[in-house]
Amino acid sequence: MDSLSAAFQEQPRFQFKLDSRNSFITGNNASVMGIKVGLEFGQTASIGIGYNWLYTKMRSELIDGIEDTPVQADIVFRYIAPYFDYSFYHKKKWEMSIPIQFGVGISRLQYTNAAGVTTRRNQGLIVLYEPSMILEYLALPFIGIGGGVGYRLMLKNNKMIDERFTAPTYKLSFSLKLGVLYNQLRVHGSLR
Questions:
Q1: Range of the domain at 16
Q2: Is residue 62 part of a domain?
Q3: Pairing relationship of beta strands 45-54 and 28-41 according to DSSP bridges
Q4: Which of 2, 77, 119, 150 could be 169's S-S partner, Cβ–Cβ 3.0 to 4.6 Å?
Q5: DSSP state of 11
Q6: pLDDT per residue over 105-134, tens digit each?
Q7: Model pTM greater than 0.85?
Q8: Count of domains forming the chain
Q9: pLDDT digit string (tens) for 56-106?
Q10: What CATH number does the domain containing 151 carry?
């Protein structure tokens, strides 16, 4: 707690992250992409918000309400998630952290019928919790490449679709520490 308290006394720096979490949906491999923006306090803590979506094309069968025929519908899974990341280990270029995020969003099925009309069906609210543990290597002071494992726990699932989203996750991440890059450019005279 002392290290967290000290971190929040430091000047925050802007943070931008892209990440890909691989997991399973109803036993099938699935990738979820994320874009995150936030503030980093020292090398210990960061907070922010992210937008996440199912990247892997996955389908589920349902009956078209107009033509009364079976159709293959795309699974849509999207959520906005505030996050908190606590970095508890620093040694040379290596960092280990525990990021957690709470997500709120939607899941649904959607398809385009023979007439070219896109139909959205069975949309419902989802709420989830995703803790994980990440090991990151700082290739440059402002670029981190990492990976880790975690778990996606659905606190509220959309019961109108059959897909199960609660599952272990494994992750690859790329982080660009814009605040660090800005400071380095300013100190070395490239920014005036």
A1: 2-57+78-106+122-187
A2: no
A3: antiparallel
A4: 150
A5: P
A6: 999 999 887 778 888 999 999 999 999 999
A7: no
A8: 1
A9: 999 888 876 666 778 889 999 999 999 999 988 888 889 899 999 999 999
A10: 2.40.160.20
